[in-house]
Amino acid sequence: MKTTVLTIALLFIGFSAFAQEPDQEFRTIFNNNGIRSNGGYGAVTTGYSKIADRHAILMGGHGAWLINHQFGLGFGGTGFVTERKTDTQLNDRYSVAGGYGGLRMEFIAMPNSPIHLSFPILIGAGGVTYVEAGRDYEFAREEDSQAFFVTEAGAEIEINVIKFMRLSFGAHYRYTSDIDLTYLDTGAPIMDKDALRGLSGTISLKFGKF
Hints:
Layout: H1 2-20, E1 38-51, E2 54-67, E3 71-82, E4 85-87, E5 92-109, E6 115-133, E7 139-162, E8 165-176, E9 198-209
Antiparallel strand pairs: 1-2, 1-9, 2-3, 3-5, 4-5, 5-6, 6-7, 7-8, 8-9
């Protein structure tokens, strides 16, 4: 009996002490105490990659809302075109062209340092075509085209050039769903299923409030 009374007394004392503690506010990043700073930027990007075993030029852009200088949430897009190569089955020069875009998220490490790192990831979709290309890359006859899903992750070295401008150099890996482009006459595959997967290098100029 004494043990039971002692246990009840200890529990009562514990609950009383807990009740006397000051209330703790539940916080999220959307509370005023969670978001200490808002910003945003827009960027233009150019780069290089190998696509379908061909040299390719990348051109694109992205923009993001910056939370607390470190977390970016926005959208991005990239277009690409490869060098022309003679297709022996079609007796003409063809290029692989297309683009992709989607939701872009980013973590920026030590953003106030003059030189720092950024880790972006993009999740979205795109389209690719195998098309006849003239000397000045005037596109003519399209042999086949297809949509695809894409995820692209990377790491970038960023330089704070001036207060509202950053220069970044990035390395990214692009992963896509299988590509199934085929010749109209024979049905034979034009390129490998993983033709769009691979590494790319980029240079970006970013302008905004960081």
